[in-house]
Structures are given as structure tokens and as C-alpha cells.
């Protein structure tokens, strides 16, 4: 093909972002696109998108319904009337095609070529053919059977996965569409629909929908496309896209001049494909349909993008497979050199009539099959199969075996939040109202865990007189609102946006939990009974409040009554303002005022409240809860002396000020019990942990604090796009707990330094600190007991022994509180705490004794090693990982703060990163310092994984999620694991039926063990080939070969079982700090393989020379001249040379295998592998038997040649028994040197090489602030 202009081209060469090259055919099509005149466009299809050539921009753009360029008002005006005619529909269907998300079925032959055929398997077929011609049937048949079964299983698995993906992607349903109804819709300052429109609805297949269609949104409908809601409201379940099971309320697109952005402001009015409409609401519902405008169809929808991300994930950069091909190419080149070396000897043999032409050809080709082991892919894949089998016992299932090795390289682990790190919803931790103790003397009240009791406090007695406490100052005539506890409770009951759907409370889970804790009732029906202006009513349970309030009413009228609050106006939550508010009126008392309740971030309520109402130690107490990972909200209240008309005209800016601070609500995220300990284990192993969630940033940050993804010692700066019109599009970084502190936008460094956290030595929280600390120790004890019990269970294979299960933090605190309160002595609080800690330490000491008594069960932790030995081992391991940058850049930049960011700010930084080196460096700094990514859409999660993978040192990244909206990220990640009840999920290569993140540690352990096994097996197979190659070359010099049964013994009974069973060694129980190397073309690997090859080849030559120096030695040619059997080519294999090398080389295979079986700290010791140890013992025993005690059967079977003699004559030459001992002695020396070389010499050389390399390392890789070098 010839490169040409776009207008002349027939094909395009498309290069994807991950450098995948595809050749696509260009077509021409006449169409009206984006309201332009009819014209001819060049188009092509690529990865389920259709692209057209835009001559004005000189580039190809995807064909999309361009609504993002319009304002909301323009959308109503241009498309709000729907499709006017059938002709218009035909134009649109020709442009956008059917609304079909069916994935084209992949032919079986294509799957076979892409997934099954590889250079390894093709070479296997070639080798099997050569061996059959030699003939060498037994091994050929076994290898062919195993390889064929592997190909069949791979083919079946791939077809099943493709089928599941097609079923998940395709969706068709019946919908009601409205076409040609423009006369029944008016755009008069709004969207007005005539009742008669219902007579013109048509029922069609969702496949026939096009952008611009108006469809009805009924209750229970699963959306087949992306839709803009035109009227009414809709409660939607978006869990398929966002992963959050909490329904969201969508409202009609505002009739305004704001620009439509489907992923920003317009998201509130956009219903996405694949989401479910739970309920629609409209004041004329039943007579007028709820309508939506189709905005995207087919693979242009959000769901379509998710499917595309699964189908076309970015290829990982794991180099093991490519390196193995390069390595094998080197081995093939060595075989070529061996062939040229042996040519003169073969020609000599041919001239002596010792060889035939067929022998020359097959012998030279056989050198290739010897040098390049055809059994290599089989051995490597079966080793991975052992790891998959062990994972299956842990209820972790794998559908992509190559990913097992890749998981061993993971150094960055990303987690979804909901369903992965946390359970659904939150828990109430407690409330802190305020205590008024005089003018400008306000303190926090004691933590109240029982919300129902709030507001039941007795009247305080100040100065010996009973007096109602007043929060609002002297002269307040409304003593009924004077109790701060009741005010806080009323805030919780009324300041929210929750609603009821089919009797169930729906809304933000925090608000739902907050409201449920009050035990009040939400009423949304028959509101006209109260007032036409009331949006909702909340009322308390009946309670006795006669002792609570002074009132002019008789006490008997106040007893057993309810508080009823009518919500008359609501200002929705704004992330920009960090608050929401409601205006309420007490419906049981004829008051002439309203109350404004405001709920928001503590620092925002602090800013809006009167200083005289702010409790002392506000910042210290807030810091304490924030650092412990609690979600904290603050409340404020204000009296509004206005009438109904004034209230309805109010704007929030007019009244949300000069508040009276009312208290704090402390919520606790429901972490899964194992989450915190697993995060700590990963961090101890130098695996970076990141949270990637679709949830809001406040919840994400508090969860990050609680589960230790965020260090409680570090400040958190939160980045988001500014909502300020003056700074539109600018990313603002604010301190999470102090919005006045910012980061510099250009380098993400703090302005004017960091704020240090306040000391926790304040009276109000000392009791809580004691309880939390003791609860943590109780949890630690349970964790250690559980760990030892699990080890014991694995040791004894017992499934009947009950395990100590980890519990929630709340339960541990309750246990701690109970035990502290049950202390029998009456010491002071501090003394009690000391005693509790002593008792806890005693328990820990007792556990330590149990641990020592059960040392055999915990031996995998290597606690018996002293510190120096551990340091030496770690240095050695680091040296062997020459191919990776074993520094940890995110640990080198611990400057006392970390970052959190929203999806839209993240996308903004990505889009700007190509503008300059400074912007690229900003992106890299952000990636290194950010631990929380919130409000991330599915495609942004995938993009994050790609960006992390593209960092200069190419880290291997993992992702763990629930498999719903995380599909793309799970596929993009180098290692994706889905938490699902199914045994296999198309969303990820790994699926865990255990619904917590403990599977991650298990997978990393097994992955590292499998990767080390693959390297060991590869090196062993390479050495096996080299040993056999040099044996063959040495024998070629005397025109002979090893016997067929000798080859069979080496291949089938020595190397094959050892190579297979190497992978059966279990992974180390503890996740190590080091990561195994993954580069075969690296100094340690080359040093190991080349050095071991030279050693073994040298000892073979030494053994061969020792043989030829013996007085009884007779060459193979002279031997068969004497025996007069040269007419049979197979007889030349019976000679001293082949026998001696066979007996000697047996031990080289064994010692090489042992040398390469050293797996610490990633695997247990090889002798713990029972099958391998038994196999090794049998092979050693058999080799010794064949060498020293062989009988007539083994002599004949293995063609052992001990003497030269004719049938009835005395031997003219005989191998003495002492020479067999010499063979054994040389083999022992060779074995000892092999093992010592691999264990010590290679490590020393690697350390020296690494030290030298570190001095030359690019400093930009070490310091994220260094400028990236192009």
C-alpha cells in the first residue's frame, strides 16, 4: 500500500492510544450531519464507533448527536417537539443507525488464531513432527495430548466469555414513542404538553429509536438509551453505571440559558442507558406522560462506552511473554552455532559411512528442538494452573491464566468503595450538642450515642435556682425551642432531602440514617390538611415533655404529645456552598415565626455562625473526629420572623448567615471488618492503595481515613473545579478541614505552609480516646487469634474448627466501653485506662506465648530470623529485581499532606497535560500524591488506570470492585478482581466469592509465587535445553547421540515432573515488601542462566576428557568397527561416551532444579512441597541406582555401555566400578557449585551491578517535582 491524501485513500492506518495498529476501510456516505446541508462524507468504523471526516478541522470525528454545544433552552426549541415526520426519521436512522448494542460474534477460527495459536505452540507442532521422524514416539504423544487439551480448553473458555459479554451488552425492550406531535407541545417559557398527546403514542422496539425521539418514561422502565428528562421528576437506580445502589432523583431539564453538559450540570436531568426508573412523579401524572428526549443511542451511550472499555482494554506492558520469545530466539541462534560447529564432524562421519544423509538433516534440525524446549509453554501453564487451583480453594476464580503472573507485579492497588471497602450505608457514631453556660460560654455536651434520648435532658439548676437554659440569649419568648438537644434533633428530622418511594425512604444514605435515628415519621401524603405550602411533615413519637419545657399551657395538655414540623421550603445541597437548608414551622403551636435549619460541613457552618455560639475546643474536637475517619456534619439554626409570602420569596443567600451553632452529627462508615487490616498489610508490603469511587468526596475521604488509605497524620487537600463564575474551569485545591488553606495550582505545594493538627489532650474526648484505643487492641487480639487459627486449619486441613471472626469497629467499641465500665476498682478515669491497657497487654503477652507454642503453625512468617539476616535477604532480593525501579516514589514525597480529587477535575488535568511540560509534570505530581479519586465516572476510572500505568517506571496496577460500573477499570487494570457471587465474571479476569478485599492479598501472594515459579521454571527449562544441547554437541564430535530411552528418561521422567511440580510449592504466608522481577532480559537472569550454562557445559567437558584419559577407553568408531555393526545406525548410540554423559548429566538436571527452586520470600521452601520433594527423592534414588546398582533390565533399557565384547568372547575393554564413583564425585562437586553459584555468586554480582546502576539512575524518577525529560 502507498501513503496518500485522505481524500484519495481507500484504507486508513489507525493507531490507538496503546499503540495497537488497525487497518480500516474508508467509505463515502451522503447525509445531513449536525444540521448542515446534505453532503458526502468519508466515514469508517473502528471499535464500534463510526467516524466522519471533518474537512474544516482536517480530522476524523465520531458521529454523535451534538447537544453539548447547545443551551438547555435551545434543546427545547430545536428538539423538544420530537421527530416531525417519517422522512426525518429515515434521515436520522441512516446517520446514527439502529439503537443496537449487540457485539458482533467472533468466528471460532478467529478466536483460535488470536487466543490459541502462538509461536510456542507452532514450534511444538514442528518439534512433534521431527520427533516422529526420528522416531521418538512416547514423548511426542504425551506432549501432543497435553497441548491439544490446553488449546481446546482455551478455545472453549474464550467463546464462553464472549457469549456472556454479548448477553450483557445487548438489550431490547418495547417503548412508547411520540412522533409528529408538535401541535400538542408548546414552548411558552416552559414545556407545556396537551393531554391529547397520549392518543398519538406508538409502541415500537427500542432498536428503532434514534436521537431526537420523544419517548415515555414509565415506572419500572430500564432505559434502552440515554435520555434527557423533559417534564416531571424520576427516581432512578443507577447502580449499573455508578456502583451506588442508592436511587437518585432526576428532574426535568431547566428551561434556561445554561449550556447543557451531560456529565456535569446536565447529569441531574439525564437518564442513562441501562439504569432503571423506579418511579416518576408529576402533578398531572396519569393524564400527561413523562417524556424524555433520546440524546444518545447504541454504543454512544454511557453503557456503550462501558462495553467498549471492556472489549478494548489497554494492553498491559508486562514483558514476560515478549522477553521469553527473545530469549528463545537467542537459544535458537545458539542451536545454529552448534549446528555449524558440528558440521565438520558430521561430514567426517558421513565419509566414514558412519552417518547417512537422513541422519545429517534430522540431526541438524533436532538441535533446534533440543535447544528450544517445546515443553516450555506446557510447563509454564501447568505451573500457573497450580496457582489457579490454590486460588479456587480460596474462592477466587480466574478466567485469564496469564493474569496470574501479572498479578505478582502489582505495586499499585485501586479499590472501589461501596461494596468493596464498605458495606452499604453508614452507622451513627453519636451526637454532640452544645451546653449553654452563660454569655460567650458554650461548650460541647457529652457524646450522646442514643439519638432518641436527645432532647430529654432535665432543666439545669444554675446558681441553685431551676432555670430553663437559653441558647438564644436573654429575652427569648419561645422557651419551647430553647433546649439545644431538641434543636439538634429537630435539625436531624427536618434538614434533609429524602423522600418515600413505595413506602421506603430514598435519598442520601447519610440523611436516611440520620432521619431513621430520630425515630420520627415522614409524611408526604394529604399535606393540604396542614397547609398548601407545606412540602412535607415530620413528626416525633409521642413523648412526655412536661418536665422539658416551660409554657403557658397547662402541663396536662403538653403530656403525651408530638412535635410536628412542616417543611415549607428547601434549599438543596450545593457542593459549592457545602450545605443545604430547610425552613420549617411548628404545626402544633400558633407561632408567628419560622425556623431555618442548616446542615453542612463543620467548617462552613462555623463560618456562618455567630462566634458567641461556637463551642470552645471546636477545632480540636473536629480534628479528632476527622483524623479518626468519621464523617462529621454540623448544624445551625436561625429564627425567621416573617410571613408566608416573605418566606416563599426568600433566596438562601439572604438568610443563611448569622446562625446559632446547634451541634455535630458524627457518622461512621460501615467498613467491612477485614478492610482496615488488609489495607495495612498492603501498605506494609509497599503496595500503594488508592480509592476510586463514584461517591462524593466527603464520604470517600472519611472512609479513606477510617480504613487507613489516608494517613491520619497528613492533611488532605481536595481538588475540584471551581463553581465561581470568575474562576470557571479552574481547579481549586482546599484543605479538607480548613477551606482557607490552599495549594499552589502550578506545583501542588501548600501556600503558607501546613496547619498542624491540634493535640487531643482535651477533656471532652479523653473517654472516647480510651475506648477507641482499647477497642483497637481488642481487634488486634482477635486478628492474631484468627490468623493463627487459619494457619492451624491449613496445617491440619480441618474445616470443623470454629474461627474467631473479626467484627465491626462499633462492636469493638461497645465491648471496650463495657469492659472499661466493669472495672471493679473505683480508681480515677486515668488509672482505669492504665489498668485496662495493662490487662490488654497481658492478653497480648498470653497470645504471644500461644504463638510461640504454635511456632510450627506460624513458621511461614520467618520470625526466627534475626534482623541482620533479614536485612541481608532483603538486599539480595532487591538486587535480583534489577529490571524494576524498586524505589517507592509515593513514599519519597510524604510532605505531611495528601490529595483527593473529583472526576471532573481529574479529567481537566488529563486534557491539559499535553499542552506543556509543566502541565505534564502537574499530572504526574497529582497521580503520585492523590489517594482518593471521587465522583469518578466509569470511563474516568479506566482513564486513571491508564495514566497510572503510563508513569515513567511503568507500575503494574490492580483494581478491585464489585464488577458493575467498574467493568472498564477492571479490564484496563493489569490485574482486575471482581467481588461477585458468580464463579466467573466477564467484568474481570479474577472473581472472588468472598465479598471483601482479603482476596487481594491472597491473589498477590499467589501471583508473586506464580511469577517466581515461571521464572524458575523458565530458567530450569533453558538450562535443561543447554545441558542437553552441550551433551548432544559433545557426542556429535564423535558421531553419536544419546540413546532414545536416555532422551526419554531426561525429558519425561526427570525434567518434566520436576518442572511441573516446581509450581506446586505454596506461596509464602506473608506478603513481602519486595516484588519479583519480570524481565527475562535482565542482568540477574542472564547472569544466572549464562553462568550456570558455562558451569554445566564445563563439567561435561571435564567428564568427557576424564573418560578419554582412561586406559580402558575405546572410541565409538573403533568400538563398532570391532563389533562390526556399522550397518545399523542405532548401534552407534551404544558407546562409552553416551553412557558416561548420561549418568553424569542426570545429576546436573537435579542440582539445577534445586538451585532454581529457591523462592524466599515469595514462596515457601521447596522441601515443603511434598509432591516435589517425593519426586526429587525418587529421581535422585533412581539416578543413584542406575549409576551404582543397575541391573540387567536398567542396563538394557537405558543402553548403558560398560564393556566392548563380542557375544562369546572376553571383553577387550570394561568400565571399572571405581570410575562410576568418579562420576558421582564430579557430579557432587558440580551440584554444590551450581547451588552455591545461584544462591551466593549471582546475588553478589547482582548487588554490585545494581549499585553501579543506581548511581546512573535518572533523578527525575526519584523526585516527582523533577521535570520530565523528553
From TrEMBL:
Subcellular localization, as worded in the UniProt entry: Membrane
Residue ranges of every copy of the P-type ATPase A domain listed in the record: 201-309
Keyword Protein biosynthesis: no
Keywords: ATP-binding, Magnesium, Membrane, Metal-binding, Nucleotide-binding, Phosphoprotein, Translocase, Transmembrane, Transmembrane helix
Domain Cation-transporting P-type ATPase N-terminal residues, every copy: 71-131
Annotated InterPro entries: ATPase_P-typ_cation-transptr_N (IPR004014), ATPase_P-typ_cyto_dom_N (IPR023299), ATPase_P-typ_P_site (IPR018303), ATPase_P-typ_TM_dom_sf (IPR023298), ATPase_P-typ_transduc_dom_A_sf (IPR008250), ATPase_P-type_domA (IPR059000), HAD-like_sf (IPR036412), HAD_sf (IPR023214)
GO terms assigned for molecular function: ATP binding; ATP hydrolysis activity; ATPase-coupled monoatomic cation transmembrane transporter activity; metal ion binding; P-type transmembrane transporter activity
An example Gene Ontology CC term for this record: membrane
Topology with respect to the bilayer: Multi-pass membrane protein
Catalytic activity from the UniProt record: ATP + H2O = ADP + phosphate + H(+)
Record-linked SUPFAM superfamilies: Calcium ATPase, transduction domain A, Calcium ATPase, transmembrane domain M, HAD-like, Metal cation-transporting ATPase, ATP-binding domain N
Superkingdom to which the source organism belongs: Eukaryota
Primary subcellular site in the record, as a coarse category: membrane
TM stretches of this protein: 116-133, 139-156, 327-347, 367-388, 1021-1041, 1047-1064, 1085-1107, 1139-1158, 1170-1188, 1217-1237
Family according to the record: Belongs to the cation transport ATPase (P-type) (TC 3.A.3) family. Type V subfamily.
Name assigned to this protein: E1-E2 ATPase family protein
Native species: Tetrahymena thermophila (strain SB210)
